[in-house]
Amino acid sequence: MNAPVLTAVGAGIARITLNRPDKRNALDRATIALLSAELRRCALDPAVRVVQITGAGGVFCAGADLTEMQAQAQASESANLADAEQLASMLALLDSMPKPTLARVNGDGYGGALGLLAACDIAVAADDAKFAFTEVRLGIIPAVVSPFVLGKIGESAARRYFLTAETLTAATLKKLGLVHEVVPGVELDACCTRLIDALLKAAPNALAEAKTLISEVAGGSDVAGGASGTAGSGGAAANRAAASREAAARLARLRIQTEAQEGFNAFFAKRKANWRPD
């Protein structure tokens, strides 16, 4: 029996493939468990600089395994909670990965697959791929993926597409912000390679720090040291000022680190920094 998830690591890239083409790469418990394990391993492996996720065959991912989900309908609420929490934990691992993540969307994606796209930093989709939040047509809701998806598409789009379950094109997903690039299928690998090459030119720790910065500032964390409770436009300005000061402290800390010193030395010496593979 083939493993439901395959990982190949080389040249700084971990290429993770959902490998259930006969099931349209649907996410059953075994697949989610193995994908979670691979994400944990990649996070800790210094040889991995970028993580790419794709699907085997002509489909990216059909979302949850409906056969398994139908069986879960007969299980207890606590068993269903544990099942849903497994998916939530996997998406959280992907979302918090300290290394850049790229979704190579080679085909259609439904339901939970859109959670994978949303949890990745960058998504590139084939132009003929189709997508949908199909959950309401099965009597359920896109609950687990919602925190990740709404962060990308916003409340207005969710109010429409979570409710209508209508089919979305890759071009529509790009307009919504869930996909960054849409290309013909034959150009998918070239586009992914171009993006990966750009990522590999960046300093590894700086990339991790940039991801943390984005998450905390976009998430509205209390980087302002308590000013977030201030009301009115003046309070909002105070929040931004405090957050900027906190970010300045991050920058000052990074400037004196070995990685930044190497980056500046390489720039002025007109040579490539030691983390660059080219």
Explained architecture:
This protein is α/β, with parallel strands linked by helices. The chain folds into 2 domains: 5-196, Alpha-Beta Complex (2-enoyl-CoA Hydratase, Chain A, domain 1), CATH 3.90.226; 203-268, no CATH class. It is 50% helix and 15% strand. It is built from 10 helices and 10 strands. It has a 6-stranded mixed β-sheet with strand order 1-2-3-5-7-10, with helices on both faces. Helix 4 (112-119) crosses helix 5 (146-164). The longest helix has 24 residues, at 232-255. The model is unreliable at 222-230 (pLDDT under 50).
Q: How would the blueprint of this fold be written?
A:
Elements: E1 5-10, E2 13-18, H1 29-44, E3 50-55, E4 59-61, H2 66-72, H3 77-95, E5 101-105, E6 108-110, H4 112-119, E7 122-126, E8 130-132, H5 146-164, E9 168-169, H6 170-176, E10 181-183, H7 188-200, H8 204-218, H9 232-255, H10 258-268
Parallel strand pairs: 2-3, 3-5, 4-6, 5-7, 6-8, 7-10
Antiparallel strand pairs: 1-2, 8-9
